[in-house]
Write a structure and sequence with these properties.
Elements lengths: L5 H14 L4 H8 L6 H16 L11
Length: 64
């Protein structure tokens, strides 16, 4: 997984806890590319693959 900048990490954590109401434990698991819920697990696995493969955005330079 790409390393996140402090600002990105803060924004993702805020969104996870305040918008989606995830626990800090679930956020920690998601950062490792997993989730205990089937739908969230699929979404997290996809999110981890996109920057690695870049298939969806071949000309994008990922900056995290």
């Amino acid at each position: 997984m790409a390393a996140l900048s402090a600002g990105c990490l803060a924004a993702h954590t805020y969104t996870g806890t305040h918008v989606t109401k995830l626990s800090l434990e679930e956020i920690a698991v998601a950062r490792r590319g997993r989730s205990s819920e089937a739908r969230a697990d699929a979404a997290v696995k996809f999110a981890v693959r996109v920057p690695k493969r870049g298939a969806a955005f071949p000309n994008r330079k990922w900056k995290h």
